[in-house]
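Bug: token stream looks shifted between consecutive jobs. Job 1:
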Amino acid sequence: MNGIYRYKNNQPVSWFNRSASMSNQYCLYCGCFVGEGSAVESNKEHLIGREFVPTGEFGEGNLFNFIFRTCKECNDEKSNVERHISSVSLFNSPARQDSQTHNNLAHRKAAKDYHPNKKGILVKDSGDEFSVVGRFGCISMNFGISGPPQGDPRYIELLAFRHIQGIFSLITSRNPHAAEGTNLLSHKYFHFFGSYNHADWGNSYLLEIMDRARKIPCYANINTANGFFKAIMRKNKGGNGEWFWALEWNKSYRIVGAIAQPNNTSNVFRDLPNLNWRELGIQNEIKTRMREESPLNMKKIYYL
């Protein structure tokens, strides 16, 4: 990430100043004017919420983060989304197996955060359980399936959008104090492909996507908070100028997508190998299917 405005290696990048005239002049999320004289209430934003990753993983403030001015409405919305995704991703994180501190923190968060899709149910109790009745040839089977808490798909996509918006502005803006020097990412160019939990990072979809993406020139490769936040941005040098992006949250979720023209599927996501889904018919009035998750082969190295 060379040539970035106010970038310093292994330190937070700050475009925020107490004086609005000395901060970035536009909210990097919605694009509204937040400079001096703006009627819009604004405040300080950390692209990676300080409580999104486990406490203490940013060290003494000497690790990368991106700090800038946003409108209060966007900041409050993102904070609410971050709280939920942090609770779910830490509760499902393999980091719990390696650290009692992380395990305790994950339990505390999941015991305080109510799942937005399940009224009155805490994240720690929000795992799915249902019975499946199926017939395989002449054999009839009835068995139960249980799964861990799942993040709200709307929250996952929105938080991914905000993270990519911030990184896009950071690496493409020449001078955020001037309108002509600030680049903002509109939602119409943002493409969300999918999110995958750590137990499924070895599925054929994701492996093929990452293999294709590695051939695209890299413009940003972020690994901060001791590996609890990772992001990569790659841009094609061809005429379409498409971007590929990927995020990793709390060693738990990997999310991938693109920046491209509306209604255009990036080449990275075309003609992918089939995933082996098994149709289970109608369960509780919902069409149900399942497949076995595919963890990474730890004998090989797979980079984000």
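Job 2, same session, no restart:
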Amino acid sequence: MSPVVTTELLPTRVGKVQVRRGGTGSPVVYLHSAMGEGEGLPLLDLLAGTCALVAPVFPGFGESEGIEQIDDMEDATFHLLDVLDTLGLEAPAVVGTSLGGWMAAELATRYPERVSRLVLVNPVGLYIRGAEIRDIFGRGPDEMAEDLFADQSHPMAVMMRAFAQMDQRDITFEMVAPQYQMLGAVARLGWDPYLHDPKLRKRLHRVKAPTLVVRGAQDTLVPAAHAETYASEIPGARLEIVESAAHLLPVEKPAELAALVASFCS
């Protein structure tokens, strides 16, 4: 029987934030992407079976408060430090997907002693000329589905395309409010400059934690050069490619990713 992943509200300096927790053993912190994946995500249950999982929900996502007090990635990094301090996590393993991967990399470069192991899954955070990240703010869910999923029959990909085909008159505020809320939160961190920190790349040598970079082979949102650069410029890092997976690898291939994390963080 899989460990139960429960949700609690944690008081922080910016307000209460949701934290999903489950399992026992060495702590592993999971930082979600701009999609806010977490509720019902099989990956979290799988990780809770091998470690003490901690998955904070970033302000502006779900019920987490305080996005109005976070202006940029520096603020986001200090917020993450506050969450780790409140939870008594001195140096956990940190796994981050996409936006969460960028946040994890910022933490590991600025405060390397606070990260024992680092796993970056399809991370953003860098600017590479000629290999720019595709737009996430101005495209419809049907277009985004092609970047996020290698398998277009995945239930979430089907749902995204179906939503794009709905009659606009049938779309209520309640249906779109969570998406606008999440995009607003992401915009505070990655609108300009777009989804990167101009100073991050030259700081990657500061990462001290053993690092695994994981890329979905069919990810068309973030070009391969980004994962390759993280893997080549973080000392000792290695790159793992997961076939038949695109940008939302944790949703599309949860068992494969959980096995990689469990093996790497054990």
